[in-house]
């Protein structure tokens, strides 16, 4: 592949750009050298989409957007920029117009929904003692502990923010389903994937944090998308 696109990685709730660490290392080893990971404020979908758009606008040439979890809603909203050529969803929300992550969650509640608790300032946290079993049950205890302690809580209102014009309706997409996901119901992921008619769907026998527990097939899907789009 002579011309590889820029890849912009978008994290979800309860994490930051460093959640992509294993994916970043492997993509770089495969020759993807123009890699970027957005650090979203998680204050509203509009704020997060604009932060992602700013990252994309400063790049030259085609961009492949990759979103994990709530990051899928962000790339759905921000993927309308002309230089964005494709979207890769990693155990992610892919709302349609007028839908929010909260609405989708309520329609098919995931196993760990009761392990999310608000604080007095309106931020939502995964209870630390429940983080491993909820978010990343297939990661080693030490890795899960670091994720739990460094988790980045979103404003609860962000769950209710709706997508305006979903980019997956006009851009090629790819989707990875996590069959043991406890944060987004696996059947919800399958439903969202099916309706977007992705060029490829990969289902992995793993928890929500597939980007950390199964980086090899996640990287393979991203590389497949890049090759399909840019030869």
From TrEMBL:
Gene3D superfamilies membership: alpha/beta hydrolase
UniProt keyword Iron, yes or no: no
GO MF terms held by the record: hydrolase activity
Keyword Hydrolase: yes
Assigned keywords, A-Z: Hydrolase
InterPro entries: AB_hydrolase_1, AB_hydrolase_fold, Sec-Metab_Biosynth_Hydrolase
Boundaries of every AB hydrolase-1 domain copy: 7-220
Superkingdom in the source lineage: Bacteria
Pfam families in the cross-refs: Abhydrolase_6
Protein name: Alpha/beta hydrolase
Species the sequence originates in: Streptomyces flavofungini
């Amino acid at each position: 592949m002579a011309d590889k696109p820029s890849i912009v990685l978008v994290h979800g709730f309860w994490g930051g750009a460093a959640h992509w660490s294993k994916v970043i290392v492997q993509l770089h080893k495969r020759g993807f050298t123009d890699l970027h990971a957005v650090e979203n404020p998680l204050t509203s979908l509009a704020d997060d989409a604009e932060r992602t758009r700013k990252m994309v606008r400063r790049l030259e040439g085609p961009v492949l957007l990759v979103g994990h979890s709530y990051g899928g809603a962000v790339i759905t909203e921000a993927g309308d920029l002309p230089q964005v050529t494709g979207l890769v969803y990693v155990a992610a929300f892919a709302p349609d117009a007028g839908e929010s992550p909260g609405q989708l969650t309520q329609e098919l509640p995931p196993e760990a929904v009761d392990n999310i608790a608000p604080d007095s300032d309106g931020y939502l946290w995964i209870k630390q003692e429940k983080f491993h079993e909820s978010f990343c049950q297939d990661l080693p205890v030490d890795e899960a502990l670091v994720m739990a302690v460094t988790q980045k809580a979103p404003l609860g209102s962000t769950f209710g923010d709706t997508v305006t014009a979903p980019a997956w309706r006009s851009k090629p997409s790819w989707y990875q389903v996590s069959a043991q996901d406890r944060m987004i119901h696996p059947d919800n992921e399958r439903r969202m994937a099916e309706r977007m008619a992705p060029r490829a769907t990969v289902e992995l026998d793993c928890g929500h944090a597939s980007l950390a527990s199964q980086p090899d097939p996640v990287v393979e899907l991203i590389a497949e998308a890049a090759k399909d789009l840019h030869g």
